[in-house]
Amino acid sequence: ALTRFLKHCEKLRARGDGDDAPALADSEDAVRLMTAHKSKGLEFPVVFGAMLSRRYNVRSMTAPLTAHRELGLGCLYCDPTLRSRRKTLPQLAIAERVHREESAEELRVLYVLLTRARDRLELVGSIREYEKTQLRWRAMLETPGAATSHLDVIMPALENAPEGLCSVEVHRAADYLNLSRDDAEADDLLD
Q1: Could you give the CA distance from residue 147 to residue 62 in angstroms, rounded to a whole number?
Q2: Are the CB atoms for 147 and 140 separated by under 8 Å?
Q3: What percent helix, strand, coil does the chain show, rounded to 5?
Q4: Higher pLDDT, 63 or 175
Q5: CB proximity list for 45: less than 8 A, separation 6 or greater
Q6: HSE (CB half, 13 Å, CA atoms) of 152?
Q7: Which of 35, 58, 107, 150 is most buried, judging by how many CB atoms fall within 10 Å of its CB?
Q8: Distances (CA, A) of 98 to 47, 58, 74, 122
């Protein structure tokens, strides 16, 4: 599939079929795909937010030496007698601060996404084990900082939403696709 796509791109390039899309005026009736960052300050009649269950991109704080612009440096403590390494208090403080800063940035991105729609907002995410995840979301009502995705922020908040304000639809992937591996259509989708 990737090889065919790349060959198709080469043919387009050879023919001179543009790499550039025509510029659209703001008033033109068109579908626009963009990140939440790029949509800041804009408003659209309908907005789709996809992949809300994608885990936040959290920097790993397992390096032996970590740094923060305000907190300074933190390094692992190496105990030669026990032949072990442990995180030090400065390293733990840096990891906690970085986690809080990255979570705050993710919440800002979510805010931008949630405030772009004028008429309708459609949010899509996928999870495994819905019932188990629902229990985790209920527990998150008390610990909102434990969220690891935008869906983890949104779904617990819906527990307290006024009736009729919004609706949640849950679909099993197998029912939604209604395909078996033997179907020719499934092969086309996978190709």
Answers
A1: 20
A2: yes
A3: 40, 15, 45
A4: 63
A5: 117, 118, 119, 120
A6: 20
A7: 150
A8: 30, 9, 12, 31
Write down how long the chain is.
191
Helix/strand number for the chain, H first, E second: 6, 6
Mean pLDDT, all residues of the chain? 82
Q: What pairs with residue 84 in β-bridges?
A: 79
The structure's pTM equals: 0.69
Q: In the predicted model, what is the mean pLDDT of residues 134-162?
A: 86
| Owner of token pair 């963009």 | 34
Residue 20 has pLDDT above 70, yes or no: no
Q: What six digits make up the tokens of 128?
A: 């495994």
pLDDT of 51 higher than 80: yes
Torsion sign (Cα): 169, 191, 51, 103 = positive
3-state secondary structure of 5: helix
* 68 vs 36, more confident: 68
